[in-house]
Amino acid sequence: MKTIGIEIESNEAIIAVLEQDEGGNLSQVTKECVKLDIGDSMNSGHVKQFRDQIDATFNAISPDKISSLSRNISGPFASSPLTFKIEGIIQLYQKVTVELVSSKTVKAFLKKKENEIAPKFKYQTNALNLAFYLIKQHSNE
C-alpha cells in the first residue's frame, strides 16, 4: 500500500509518500517526496501547470490513498485564500479520492502510535505523519 500525505504551506504543496509492504514494513519513498510550487497563482498558465504537475506526480506514485491536512477556514489562524486554491486543485485528481484530515486528528493518533519513520527533511514532517496515519488507519480497517 502507498499513501500520500500533503501539507499545504504558502504557495507550495509538500508531498510525502509512505509504502507498506506485505510484511507490514514501512518505508519512505524519498524520490517521490517533493515540494510543488504553484508559481504566480493569478496566471492561469501557472495554475494549469501546477494541476498537471500534481496529476503527473500522483500518477507516477500510483497511491492507494491520498490525504491533505485541512486548514482553519476562519479565526486568527485562518489560512490564506491561496492555500484553498491549491487544495481545490489537488482535490480535482480523479483516480483516487483526496480526503482532508485535521492536524488535531493526526496529533491525537500520534500520541497513541508513534511514527517510526523519520522524514528525510524537516519540512516533510507533517506530510509524512499524515501518510503514516493513513497507512495505519487502513491497516486497522
List keywords for this structure.
six-stranded mixed sheet; 141 residues; 38% helix; Nucleotidyltransferase, domain 5; single chain; alpha/beta
Plain-language structure description:
Helix content is 38%, strand content 23%. It has 141 residues and is an alpha/beta fold. It has one domain (2-139): Nucleotidyltransferase, domain 5, CATH 3.30.420. A hairpin with a 2-residue loop joins β1 (2-9) and β2 (12-20). The longest helix is centred in the middle third of the chain and has 18 residues, at 44-61.
Rg from C-alpha positions?
15 Å
Query: What is the CATH superfamily?
Result: Ribonuclease H-like superfamily/Ribonuclease H
Round the mean pLDDT to the nearest integer and report it: 90
Structural class: alpha/beta
Terminus-to-terminus distance: 13 Å
Main pleated-sheet profile: 6 strands, mixed
CATH architecture: 2-Layer Sandwich
Globally, the shape reads: globular
How many E strands?
A: 6
- Provide a count of the helices: 4
Helical residue percent band: 25-40%
Compute the number of structural domains.
1
What name does the CATH topology carry? Answer: Nucleotidyltransferase, domain 5
Fraction of residues in β-strands: 15-25%
